[in-house]
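Q: Sequence in, structure out?
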Amino acid sequence: MKQHTAPPRAPRVKAAAPAAAPMPASHAQDVAEAFDDFMRAFEAFKTANDERLRELESALGEDSVTADKVDRINNAVDEQKRVLERLIAKAARPPAGGSAFGAVPSEHKAAFERYVRKGDETALRRIEGKAMSIGSGPDGGYLVPPETETAIAGRLRDLSPMRALATVRQVTGATLKKPFATTGPEVGWVGETAARPETDTATLAELSFPTAEIYAMPAATSALLEDTAVDIDQWITAEIEAAFAEQEGAAFIAGNGTNKPRGFLDYTMVDEGSWAWDTIGYIPTGTDGDLPAADASDVLLETVYALKAGYRQNANWMMSRKTQAAIRKLKDTDGDYIWKAPATADQKPSLMGFSVYEAEEMPAIGSNSLSMAFGDFARGYLIVDRRGVSVLRDPYSAKPYVLFYTTKRVGGGVQDFDAIKLIKFGVS
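A: Exactly. Output:
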């Protein structure tokens, strides 16, 4: 396999973020121990895989026992990584029984808590009446307080790789329409006193991003609602975050756009050599259902350079855990693995110098599968959130439990078709 140098990346300049609360010592120790276990598992994987590669190069060929051993350790690496990610996510949550927004609740939050705990909607009606809220009331539910909505959005961003990478925009209407210049205006050089001929007008495409409703229906017991030690904001956030993140993640990647966001895998796919606006280009591996047996990293390098330099500065890989496990076995001619483990617990692994994000909604490697995506997802994909998360309290449908019908509206789609490239595991 040829050795390649990853393309240089421009340094990213980010605005200073608010200082995060220090992680409790017990959580920090758990994360550190899990990261050590992950690194030990990865070192064991490299040792076993090196043995497998030596057998492949020998006259005897690969031993099935060694191959099984590599797969078991590779799965153990994935499991250790899952444990590490869960611990990091747990450590990032605010402590139970207290609010991350201060000891004194806002008027809206206090009124919302009375509604959730006891069904008292008097104060919420008054607050939303003054705010002239739409889509609320006894039939449609009541809007959660801003701090609760912020907490839900933050947790969704932590759980969803697409929300972490794509551009997210809040709107108040049902549909966002956005013009996009598919070609720039013509320009030219002229002398100081020469006439300036009129340039052609840029070609504009109107992109439409309708929002669709997503819902979850957590249930609570009367004892839970009467327990004043339970933080209602945290309870609702924890109950709906996983359900929302799973459904959104699948839609942002493969949704068909009918009553849900349109995923980037739902658009027309063409070979990169035939790329045109309104399509997404792919690089074929040349081998059906697999990477080529020789110089497999050439396909990865070609994909990296299929992206324009301006997009590569903020580019990332996206693939499923199983695809990442297969890529983890690849080495260059110097014997170095092209998949690099993260340097610290809170970092991502890298491939060809670019971070790798796991999305289980990406297809597994198979015949003609589009299993790997590479691009600047912030420029390539737009997520549209309609402001407001509504909760309707239902104490009647599932007695003795109280149901909370929770809804939000979200849309999404590709906004720059030149910013995302795919690898197709096929001949052409």
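The mean pLDDT is 82.
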